[in-house]
Amino acid sequence: MIKKILLLGMLLALVGVGVAFLLINALLTVARGGALFTEQNLLYGALVFFGAATAMYLGFAVTGIDFAPSAVAHVRRNLSRQELRAEVLEADVLGWQPEAPFDAVYEQTCLCALPEEAWPDYAARLYGWLRPAGSLFALFMQTGQPGGPPRHCDLLRMRRIFDEDRWHWPESEPMLVPHRNGRFELGYVLKRR
Fold first, then answer.
1. pLDDT tier at 70 (50, 70, 90 boundaries)?
2. Which helix (H) or strand (E) holds 31?
3. How many structural domains are present in the chain?
4. Beta-strand (E) ranges in the chain?
5. Which contacts of 89-95 are long-range, i.e. CB under 8 A and separated by 24 or more positions?
6. pTM across the whole model
7. Which of 1, 105, 125, 151 is the most exposed place for a label (fewest CB within 10 A)?
């Protein structure tokens, strides 16, 4: 059972408050109805940072990381206004190490913002941050263009970086997350082996 969640790239999604409200209400409806939480439900709930608010309301311990001091301060103010508690850290994901592993990690827009040569190290860190059988909720950016950030996360390359020896990839189709600018993300729930 997931109890402890790490959010990466959590701040980009603050722009989608209306969508966040709908997603939170949908997730809370599932929770109130006693329906079983599936990983797909959690992924939808975590599409935006306010999905973390749902996790907090439901008693999960939530940690968020960003390297930008202004973004961290903004999230802390929002949490305070909503009377929510989460650990929000200003840190470099390529140097940070948690005290204990997480049950789940939500990754959106962090990988695609890093230089491509850092991707293997970042994937190894994600693996190390999760407990065995932990879940990585990953949204891989699809720009179809060279350069960035955001950088295109080619799925063949993602499967090499997040290799089958360490990660179990689902057989189901990915979740499609469209953006207004024509880009999109493909959502997968990878399991740490």
1. confident
2. helix 17-32
3. 1
4. 4-8, 61-66, 87-90, 102-108, 130-142, 167-168, 175-178, 184-192
5. 89/63, 89/64, 89/65, 90/65, 90/66, 91/65, 91/67, 92/67, 93/8, 93/65, 93/67, 93/122, 93/125, 94/118, 94/121, 94/122, 94/125
6. 0.77
7. 1
Residue whose entry in the numeric block shows the structure tokens 């040569």: 117
Structural contact between residues 62 and 56, judged by C-beta atoms closer than 8 angstroms? yes
List Cα–Cα distances, 20 to 23, 52, 178, in angstroms: 5, 10, 15
Task: Please give the residue range of the domain that contains residue 57.
Answer: 4-192
Any idea what the CATH number is for the domain that residue 148 is in? 3.40.50.150
Write out pLDDT tens, residues 112-138: 999 999 999 999 999 999 999 998 989
87-90 vs 175-178, strand pairing mode: unpaired
